[in-house]
Amino acid sequence: MAACTPPLAFITGASSGIGQALAWQCYQQGWSLALVARRGDAMAQWAAAQGLDAGRFAIYEADVGVVDSIVAAARLCMERQGLPDLVVANAGVSWGVDTSLREDLDAMQQVLAVNTLGVAATFHAFIAPMVARGSGHLTGIASVAGLRGLPGHGAYCASKAAAIAYCESLRGELRGSGVQVTTLLPGYVDTPLTRGNRYAMPFLLTPTEFAQRAWRVLESGRSYAIIPWQMAWVGRCMKILPNSWFDRLLVGRKRKHRHLDKN
Ligand SMILES: NC(=O)c1ccc[n+]([C@@H]2O[C@H](COP(=O)([O-])OP(=O)(O)OC[C@H]3O[C@@H](n4cnc5c(N)ncnc54)[C@H](OP(=O)(O)O)[C@@H]3O)[C@@H](O)[C@H]2O)c1
What we know:
Elements: E1 8-12, H1 17-28, E2 32-37, H2 40-50, E3 57-61, H3 67-80, E4 86-89, H4 102-133, E5 136-141, H5 154-174, E6 179-186, H6 207-220, E7 224-227, H7 229-240, H8 243-250
Parallel strand pairs: 1-2, 1-4, 2-3, 4-5, 5-6, 6-7
Helix pairs in contact: 1-6, 3-4, 4-5
């Protein structure tokens, strides 16, 4: 009898934080992995440290902010490992900006390229083959920060709001095709991305806690979830608060520090 092939997860941003934790969660569930990020050495070191079976993972160095780079990685994955069952567009950057400064417009463009267009570019090569197969799961990692604008965080909030809307559009397009689309909105997770934040981060999760909860959402077939549940309530309130109340709530809150500030 032929051995059963494990399902395959293609995960961007797999060299750190949430992406790494999601990869480990999938691996522990018996899945094979396509690990994607710019730092191949970091992914190789992690795979060795975790003792991953060489037959169950491959590493792809790609920049999701460069369309041809991530599309090439997706195509190579399909050649080498086959069509994934799950694609997680997780790679992202969180850069504070001050758009009154010219150089911060370049930073904002980069944030949008990675966090928004990067999600679409990650899914791109898989959409048609998944539709032809009649199955697949595309998951975009957005953020609670995509629900309202936060001071100093205009680039990030805009990029995540656009990612949420993009995933919703794609979900409508793929309805009935057998391909699912899920949008996950993390609250605060303790990773290198948040460690420099100079404000309180309520309901902070470890990456492992986040990955375990995300896994349950993916298994349940839900199309949208804010994690953790406490943040889901915060998110719901944020969405419906009138602007005047929301503005008052932000009084005294420290703004996200500029990415280009070295201090
Ligand atoms: N941590 C939180 O509290 C939080 C909250 C809400 C949403 N999120 C979202 O969760 C996702 C993961 O964040 P994290 O907290 O795990 O951050 P992280 O630890 O800094 O990891 C970010 C990952 O994205 C990859 N990446 C960044 N730019 C890339 C590019 N141009 N091309 C390819 N890969 C790139 C990085 O790999 P390389 O540097 O090796 O390329 C790294 O693996 C992000 O989309 C983030 O916005 C995080």
